[in-house]
Design goal:
By secondary structure, this protein is α+β, with helices and mostly antiparallel strands. It has 4 helices and 17 strands. The strands form 2 sheets. Strands 1, 2, 3, 4, 6, 7, 9, 10, 12, 16 and 17 form an 11-stranded mixed sheet that branches. Strands 5, 8, 11, 13, 14 and 15 form a 6-stranded antiparallel sheet that branches. A hairpin with a 2-residue loop joins strand 13 and strand 14. The termini are far apart.
């Protein structure tokens, strides 16, 4: 058996190279694995982040919609609106008491809101006259509205719904005359109609024409304000009523009620005769006219 070659004390070169290759391959594999792991982790994080962002966006949208569902689609504020240059009447269901009569006759021209403050149950309106007689009382309203839905709000119809109807108020009538009639508003309700929708008012004779929303689209975007001036009348009754807005919320139908801060609006026709009548003039202040028909006076 031949003798094994003697070692010179140096490592075998081939074995050393093989070992280094194995180490390098192992190190390279580990590095590659680390890089691949990092890439996969980054991709996974991006996918997760994108999915989370989508979920967050959906959550925000759902929160907005839930918040919108808790409040009306349109924020509204409605109040009686009379222009100072027009003739105005105040009507009550009963004659003035002695104290009310004394307080009225001791004053001159009424200040803004003074008559309404003195007589809380009074119904006021702009008056129209024909041949020296009061012919019609117009209830003037100003409605301020702001869209507060998550998307646009489409107003499909505006109507008046009468909650209570009775004979015209005939207790007391207070008249503040004027030299002429002011310009009519553009939207009107006839409260005597079975279905009283908001109609276009003719500027010539104040007759009512086509439905207002048939002539003009009314849409409110989120945060968009709009002001609508409306006048209403009844020739036969005393009415308590509210405005109903028929809304389209992107396919969802809803009816929103507009009223006088929780109370209905109030309108009255002209009675044939009043138990108590008064008129005010610039020179003489308030004058008592006794009982009788509704006569026009300056």
């Amino acid at each position: 058996m031949p003798a094994a070659p003697l070692s010179d004390g140096q490592p075998d070169a081939a074995a050393d190279r093989s070992t280094r290759r194995k180490l390098l391959l192992a190190a390279g594999g580990a590095a590659a694995s680390a890089v691949i792991g990092t890439v996969i982790g980054a991709v996974a994080n991006r996918i997760t982040s994108a999915e989370q962002a989508v979920r967050d966006d959906r959550a925000v949208e759902q929160a907005k919609r839930a918040d919108a569902q808790r409040k009306p689609p349109i924020a509204t504020n409605a109040y009686y609106y009379d222009r100072s240059d027009e003739a105005v009447v105040w009507a009550l269901a009963t004659p003035l008491t002695g104290d009310q009569r004394q307080r009225l006759l001791s004053r001159s021209l009424p200040a803004e809101g003074e008559v309404a403050d003195t007589f809380p149950d009074v119904v006021n309106g702009v008056v129209r006259s024909v041949d020296g007689r009061l012919a019609r009382v117009l209830t003037r309203l100003r409605v301020s509205a702001v869209g507060q839905w998550t998307g646009p709000v489409f107003v499909r119809q505006i109507r008046a719904r009468v909650l209570k109807r009775s004979a015209p108020l005939s207790g007391a009538l207070l008249l503040r005359g004027s030299q002429g009639d002011g310009e009519p508003l553009s939207i009107g309700f006839d409260l005597d109609e079975p279905e009283s929708v908001a109609r276009v008012i003719s500027p010539k004779d104040e007759t009512l024409g086509a439905a207002y929303v048939d002539r003009r689209a009314l849409t409110l975007s989120p945060g968009e304000p709009v002001t609508i001036d409306v006048q209403a009348y009844t020739d036969r009754s005393y009415c308590e009523w509210v405005i109903e807005l028929e809304l389209d919320l992107g396919g969802e139908k809803r009816v929103q009620v507009v009223d006088d801060h929780g109370r209905p609006f109030r309108s009255t026709g002209v009675a044939a005769r009043y138990q108590d009548r008064y008129h005010v003039s610039l020179l003489d202040g308030w004058t008592a006219d006794g009982a009788g028909p509704p006569v026009w006076k300056l």
